[in-house]
Amino acid sequence: MKHILIFILLMHSFCGFSQSHTVANLKIKGNKKLKTSFVKSISKIQKGSVLDSLIIEQDIQRLKRLPSVSHAYYQVFLSANNQYNVFYNIEENFTLIPSANFYTTNNDEFAYRLGLYEFNTLGRSIIFGGFYQKDNYSSYAINFRAPYLFSNAFGLAINHQDLTTLEPVFFDNTTSNYKYNNKSLEILGLYEFNFENRIELGVNYFTEDYQYKFGATNINVPQELTVEKWLLKGVYEYNKLDYFYQYISGFRNQFVFQYVTSTNDMLPDFFISWNDFFLFKRIGKKGNWANRLRLGLSANDETPFAPFSVDNNLNVRGVGNTIDRGTGVIVLNTEYRYTLIEKGWFVLQSNAFIDAGSWRNPGGDFGDFSTDENIKIYPGLGLRFIHKKIYNAIFRVDYGYGISKNASKGFVFGIGQYF
Q: Which pLDDT tens digit goes with each residue over 68-112?
């Protein structure tokens, strides 16, 4: 990040700025759609506050985390009487983003998802939009997320979805296929304790509907099931990531806990929880080493509808679409990203990765994590086509090749970095 400072005027104190220095004014430059009033409202530096280099750095990092900002930096200039003008310079992203994904299902049928999201609604970095999906059946979702809706620390998220898919269900070493529908409404309160720590707390009311279509059957596995459920959700995140366009460095940890209770007394309450550790490191000028470790557990019921799936688009590239399920998961994704071409707004990035994971069988024990049948190891290569001025405009293609038991191989396409 390029800092334009007058160090001689500022460095009267060994640690940060001197306590006698105050902010005469905070000025925002470069923003067009992003509201100046919004930027000032979420900034810790204010007119009349003590000039503090650490707080300014945190403000800049907070701005760079917004979907509406591709880059930000600051300038400090002497005003008068030990007062200084602080300038926050912003390079905006284009934030009205259409999406179009096309793919084939396990039945070789053509499927697609069309969406449209505005990531800077009303100039306040509010995310609003939705998508329509055709994957054997029609589905849709509408999402609203405003982290700073009520103050510079308190926000709200509301999500509604009506998703219908053809889902494989595994039992007795056989597979069955069900039409699965999940209709839900979720409301979350968002609170930011400080620059590095935040939580989400809320509730989700949803209806699940399973209808048998074809495949194996068992008298103990229902062919039709409709149940209403409540889900209590909590998320805690610690975030010390630093962004510089396509490059990321630092550490992030996200913990998710969900407790599900059913209106059907025959179905037991259960929990599902997972923790994601992220570690990113810049390697030279063009390299970026990225890592994600996921550890997850759920209630260990012996059910064909176990919550953790083995899937191309979630955890192991090249493994296939929902090839297995489990009640526990350990997954490590590590990859080296290297910028091959960078010309103005365009970046071509290469990617070499290893995805490895293991699952606990429903009703099994922790020894399942070490069995050959449950361990998946897939190295591979990929490319990223990146537009630096459009939020999340990263088209990725990866090819994973399995080297573990009963391995497969294949391409995985998507929008955004894999993690």
A: 999 999 999 998 888 999 999 999 999 999 887 776 555 556 778
Q: Tens of pLDDT along 163-184? A: 998 888 877 778 889 999 999 9
CA distance 236 to 190: 10
Q: How many CB atoms lie within 10 A of CB 14?
A: 6
Predicted TM-score (pTM) of the model is: 0.83
